[in-house]
Amino acid sequence: MIYEGKAITVKEIEGGIAQLNFDLQGESVNKFNRLTLEELGAATEKLGAREDLKGLVFTSSKDSFIVGADITEFTKLFAGPEDELIANSLNANAIFNAIEDLPFPTVSAINGIALGGGLEMCLATDYRLMAPKAKIGLPEVKLGIFPGFGGTVRLSRLVGVDYAVEWICGGTENRADAALKVGAVDSIIEADKLVEAAVALINECNAGKLDYKARREEKKGKIKLNAMESMMAFEISKAFVAGKAGKNYPAPVEAIKVMQKHAGLTRDKAVEVEAKGFAKMAKTNVAACLVGLFLNDQALKKKASAWEKEAADVNLAAVLGAGIMGGGVAFQSALKGTPILMKDINQDGIKLGLNEAKKLLSKRISKGKMDADKMGDVLNNITPTLNYGDFKNVDLVVEAVVENPKVKDAVLRETEDTVREDTILTSNTSTISINKLAENLKRPENFCGMHFFNPVHMMPLVEVIRGEKTSDRAIATTVAYAKAMGKTPIVVNDCPGFLVNRVLFPYFGGFAALLRDGADFQKIDKVMEKFGWPMGPAYLLDVVGMDTAKHANEVMAEGFPERMKADFKSAIDVMFENERYGQKNDKGFYRYEEDRKGKPKKVVDEQTYELIKPVVADQKDFEEEDIIARMMIPLCLETVRCLEDNIVEAPADADMGLIYGIGFPPFRGGALRYIDDMGVDKFVELADKYADLGPLYHPTEKLREMAKNGEKFFG
């Protein structure tokens, strides 16, 4: 054994060739934490001192190769001084440079995922062999940063500027065929033959058939573009990427600027430029928020995995109500491999549900994500029915009928009588109390909410709602089924609107009051979209549907009358009364026309202004900061109340629910992190400035205590 550690071992395998193997003890994946980097440095130093070695193969004992850096270490690291961040990057680069400078040929045998620092290390070797099912990429921009272990330097020289920009700025995970096409890897080899092929490659180098030194010098040199070519490549890329990423996500454009700066430098100077650029991005609030989101997401996954251990198997599911929502649920379940019955009371409903599934599958075929055989398999997983004949075999039922408590009550009681005693019943209600729906059930312990968001196939969140009598088994099984459908489940306690709608409707309340006071709904939309929302509140109401919003608002007003019962007639009321329901009938705050792709395109409709004139003040030009404050304070305060009322268990649950459920701007991290970033004391001060607008703007006593004590939601 040449070297033995807790993450890395090095041994001689044959003919003077060594194998450096990654196998991080106590972890399911390999990652570049401090320990792994330290051991890699020590192992490389030992290898460099050996004069008898003829080559080195890098391997992994785990299914993945190296998934990247240990992101749990980022929060503390990024909070430190910028010069420490630079030093950290240069330290890792010194190790990778030492690998690149070893006095013999080196090969990475990539058996599984190699992302971020994992790929950057592979780029330091002379050759890369990749298994057919492996994926490689540099996804750092998704965390608000870009590669800092030499990735921008080595990839741009290996594959060229255009492909390097595409990979780094897109943050994509790339399959073996795509990696081979651009020259990021040298060959695709079956996983069990990787070491054998790597040894053969090293032997060819030592026999003089391959010039590994020449390849190495190319990778360590300058980018081979003249001044004009370089200027064109980088300036065009910057303009294109800036348009795609937007100003709220600076890392992709900064990555290009860094590549442009080090294009004319050799490796050792180039990595210094990269390290400085990396540190600059790591110190941004965007990076702090996106890293926080990643950690929050990991925390959610950990909770879901814990629930899975207690879950009963769901081998057959059923959905009641075969409309757009029911068809979406059926499609998602079938696509991810859980067969599902789709029941409706008439053939037209069944047809609508099946058509929804077919439409979604056809889109996948047209985009090359699926072939006709796979489409057939998915459709065969959906069994349409007009009766309860097969329901004795169903493990979990999703009720997705009309949002009416009497109808839901009747359907749930009827279903309970036809299923087994251990079958889990769930309701896809967005507003109706789970406790209320459980009142007439014989087995309320087997009942909970399972709130999907529309469109089901696109929206990642599922709220799993616990009623007073819901058992852990029901929650666990529903969470596991949501995960099996490819969704992110968040467990919440019952209350009007649960988490997402309870928080969303104070936001709409802020919007309604702004219109009442003379704000222009188009300007509000533009300001909030600039703030980072995917669509402004007027546009969002049109997408949600004015009838749906009106109904949900009534539920909120009944549940929280002090805060959410308006004392004025709103523009939303006027839209509803005039049957301007939004996209569902092509007119709401905006009119909707089909674009060339057949999708609804919003158009300004002057009639809206005439209709709302009786309920709004003369138009007034509000400052952007004023609009943002009046929209965001109610949303943030209601999120605080959900946490204080134990509707959600932790701040991470609340913030992820808003990001996955209503598109809260990810680069701002969520409502509670937004308060943290402003400072709890400053947020309370801001809310107090708007106190005369009513209880929606009044901080809770606990929040005032946090402000007084200098506390935060996230440490």
TrEMBL record:
- Keywords per UniProt: Fatty acid metabolism, Isomerase, Lipid degradation, Lipid metabolism, Lyase, Multifunctional enzyme, NAD, Oxidoreductase
Q: Which residues form the 3-hydroxyacyl-CoA dehydrogenase C-terminal domain?
A: 497-592
Q: Does the keyword NAD apply?
A: yes
Pathway entry = Lipid metabolism; fatty acid beta-oxidation
Q: Name one GO molecular function term.
A: enoyl-CoA hydratase activity
3-hydroxyacyl-CoA dehydrogenase NAD binding domain location = 317-495
Q: Is NAD tagged as a keyword? A: yes
Q: What class of enzyme is it?
A: lyase
Please provide the Gene Ontology terms (biological process) for this protein: fatty acid beta-oxidation
EC number, as in UniProt: 4.2.1.17
Q: Please give an example of a GO cellular component term from this record.
A: fatty acid beta-oxidation multienzyme complex
Q: Which Pfam families match?
A: 3HCDH, 3HCDH_N, ECH_1
Reactions the enzyme catalyzes = a (3S)-3-hydroxyacyl-CoA + NAD(+) = a 3-oxoacyl-CoA + NADH + H(+)
Q: Which family does it belong to?
A: In the central section; belongs to the 3-hydroxyacyl-CoA dehydrogenase family. In the N-terminal section; belongs to the enoyl-CoA hydratase/isomerase family.
| NCBIfam families assigned to the protein according to its UniProt record, in alphabetical order | FadB, PRK11730.1
Protein name as catalogued = enoyl-CoA hydratase
Give the originating organism: Marinobacter oulmenensis
